[in-house]
Structures are given as structure tokens and as C-alpha cells.
């Protein structure tokens, strides 16, 4: 009986030791990672802009075919897209959400990215930034490794970085303006190192002013700006013009409606770099 008791005690001690070791190697927080976004299907370019800044119905924005080129942006929110119809309805380009943070990839990305290409559109990928879950370089690597690359084929837009209001908490991801600028610079530099292109930056003037201190040091990056009204309005500091204007959150095309500031030849040149 005593031998059995000693055996049981040794087994209990071994189990406790193993549990303690596991707790050190794999802390409880690792089983429910705070890095994983809770609702990534709702985090798409402009989702938080509309929530925080609203829309201006104004007058209908008329597209000048001679000067501007119609496009769109989509994410898993749209699911599988009818690309032949979108092409017939006038879309010439599209940005597609590829990733978010360092854990999420768009489950519809392959259908959206390849499908748009197959009907002749110029397409590119964007990353929804969560600057509070990792440094910029890490997120840039995750993005590029999961669809955010670029090729000089005249059919691929430069990778894009979506910087907007935090859908999970503090507007500026608990970063000071200097820290946000450093994060954005690290992301941008890493994308350029790996693809040869500076990423397009998607952001609103209001968010940029608040969260970067209206930094003027990113004018070399193409600007993709949301403004749901009849005019682009004031641009963020550092940019003299926008490359792409997201002018409406709905319209004839799936997802958000966009205009490239130039004709189709200009769009192809932008894609080629």
C-alpha cells in the first residue's frame, strides 16, 4: 500500500512539473493570441473611414473617361466576384485585400486576384495594417509572403498599405505620431527592398493628421485617398496630388468605387513603374 502511495505521489509531482514547464514555454496567452483580428472580414479599405468620418452624398461624381479611369477595391466582404460582369460594367483596375496584421489572409484572394487578371484588369494587393500587433517590417514581410508581391508586367499595381482608424481600440493603435511614422517607414522600406516599389498608401487626411502629426515625409509613395463626396478635398501633408481616389462606398461595381487620376495608358505606366 505504501509503495502504491509513493508511486501515485511521484506521478502527481511529474504531472505538476510538466504543467509548470508547459506554462513557461507556452503561456496561456499564446492559446488565444491577441494578434488575431476578431472580425477581419469587416476590416476593408474605408470601413473605418465611413464609421468615423461619414459620407457626403453631395452630387453624383461623374467619371471623365478622357481624364480618369474607373476601378474598384474588394475584400472577403464581397466573396467571390463576378469578374466578367465587373469588366463589362467598366472596371479597369482593382485593389484586393490580401492580409491583415500577421495572422489573417483573405480566403477569397486567389479567386479575386486571378479572376480580375483573367478578364484583363490591372490588379494589386493591399494590407490592412494593425500597427499595435507587430513592427512594420514584420507586417510587410507577412503581406509580401501572402500575395503582396509585384511584377513588372504592366498588369500589377504596386503593393498598398491601408492605414486607417483602429477597428479594435485606440484610434492610433496607442502609438505616438513619431512612432506611427517610424512604423510606416519600416513597412514602406521593407516593401521597396523586397519588391522594388514603394507601396501605395491608403489613408484619410483626418487620420493621417491625427496619427502621424500630419507628417510630410511620404510624398514619394503613391496616395490612395478616401473621400466620399463630389471632390477629393484637402490632401494629407506631403502629397500634391492623389494617384487613386476612393470616391464612393458603393456603385455600379462590387466593393468601393475608385478613380485613377489618369487615362488607361497612365494606369499601365503606373503599374509598370
UniProtKB/TrEMBL annotation:
Q: Source organism's superkingdom?
A: Bacteria
**Which keywords fit this entry according to its UniProt record?**
Antimicrobial, Bacteriolytic enzyme, Disulfide bond, Glycosidase, Hydrolase, Secreted, Signal
Q: What does the record give under GO molecular function?
A: lysozyme activity
What Enzyme Commission number(s) appear in the record?
A: 3.2.1.17
Q: Which GO terms describe its biological process?
A: carbohydrate catabolic process; cell wall macromolecule catabolic process; defense response to bacterium; killing of cells of another organism; peptidoglycan catabolic process
Query: Signal peptide span per the entry?
Result: 1-32
The protein's annotated catalytic reaction(s) are:
Hydrolysis of (1->4)-beta-linkages between N-acetylmuramic acid and N-acetyl-D-glucosamine residues in a peptidoglycan and between N-acetyl-D-glucosamine residues in chitodextrins
Gene Ontology CC annotation, any one: extracellular region
Annotated CDD domains: GH25_CH-type
Q: Extract the PROSITE patterns matched here.
A: GLYCOSYL_HYDROL_F25_1, GLYCOSYL_HYDROL_F25_2, TAT
Localization annotation: Secreted
Looking up InterPro entries in the UniProt record yields: GH (IPR017853), Glyco_hydro_25 (IPR002053), Glyco_hydro_25_AS (IPR008270), Glyco_hydro_fam25_subgr (IPR018077), TAT_signal (IPR006311)
Q: Which family does it belong to?
A: Belongs to the glycosyl hydrolase 25 family.
Q: What does this protein do?
A: This enzyme has both lysozyme (acetylmuramidase) and diacetylmuramidase activities.
Name of this chain's protein: Lysozyme
- Species for this entry: Kutzneria albida DSM 43870
